[in-house]
Amino acid sequence: MPDRILAPIMIGITGKRELHGKDEAVRSAIDACFDLLDQQLAASGKLLLTGLASGVDTIAAQSALDRGWKVIAVLPFGLDLYTQDFDAEGIQRLHKFADPKNGLLADPAKGRVIVLDPLIDQHTKKPFPATQLSHQPKGSNRDRTDHYEQVGLFIADCSALMIAVMPATEQPDRIGGTHFGAQTLGVA
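and the corresponding structure tokens:
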């Protein structure tokens, strides 16, 4: 029988941006999950789908790359708009993964970046323009938030396995991010 080619297991990750000093605990928990997947599904390739936000997403992306997995970064909009939600350190970390010049991961052999199409504005029936999706320094931008929700739903829909990392005491009671009702890996 010829060697079988197995489709990769698509694994989604979602979690908090602000880890309140628990970065190492989160890294350890993610590594333990990934170790288990590598042991139990040794013959299958692994592909991590991530929003590549600061915090859990970038920790998981680095762990996946370190073990030879491919990474697909799914972004709500182009890097110019996306980086508006990052501090200077976060932008530097993001650019280690995503090349702002060509939109690919810094090493295209290890994965790629997908930028989702803008949602349709129900009033104009046209895609939201970039100006309407800009980060608002005071208050939230519901249209921007909807695009983040779109990323979470896209990743959850495409993944065979979804890993959500959030505080063990937090209830998943909102839509988007770690709040869409996933079985969660609590980190104390």
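(Above: one complete record from the training split.) Confidence is low (pLDDT under 50) at residues 177-188.
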